[in-house]
Input
Amino acid sequence: MNFKKLFKIGLILSLSMSVLVGCGEAAQDNASQTEIVEVEPEEVVISVVGSTTVTPVIEQIAEAYKELNPNVKIEVQGVGSSAGIKAAIEGAADIGMASRELKKGEKAVGLTETPIAQDAIAIVIHPTNPVKGLTTEQAKQIFEGKITNWSEIGGADAPITVVTREDGSGTRGAFEKIMGLVDEDGVSTISPVALVSEGNGAIKASVASKDNSIGFISLGTLDGTIKALEIDGVLPTVETTLAGDYKVARNLLVLTPVTISSDVQSFIDYALSPEGQIIVSEHYIPVN
Output
């Protein structure tokens, strides 16, 4: 091989290396100028509507869930069980909340019923009232207006003031069913002269302010402003409810259509998880 050939080969190799180096530097320059943009996940809104008894615990579960899933917004409205069931049936809400069993016509729609907690319904009186307990039949007759004076059941000679929840309340519906306070047509037999209060808080306030009154509230809202009565010799507590000894008890439900989004399912799964059930235990009786 002569010198001219060697020179040509060397020149070609040199030019090739220059081109490759130049391309590499250009690629590095372009890479250094590329801006990485983080895309925020799209906001997901889940609407939950229904029972005022279930509302406080769902609100707290929603707060904890949002900390883990910042892109999820959960809107909770406490408007009563009947309204929540209707919203779930009509698709006006992603999740309905109920503190009573579904009626036959409501069940026919095919909603999925998921219990997230258990709750007892406590029959409550003013803390100064000396009466300690009632039989189921005595309680039934008081709320029907057939027993009208505390002296008839060992108390003071004073008229009984009955306080009940509003129509559409899940707590009222469950109480009526358990206590047999409905007639053959499913119509309430609670005394028409009973005072009506909306929500557990309103019942508590009413009973606490009237010495001779009686009402019923969720066990989860029981406090020292009122006194819970024994029913058939059993006081409403978490332990007696779990053991099945206290009979005035019900499941707290979330209701969904058969087909739901993965986001809605994820929230319900969280409510049933150990973390969610710890939150439930602060208010009611866990199901898991």
Q: What stands out?
A: Residues 116 and 272 are 6 Å apart (CA to CA).
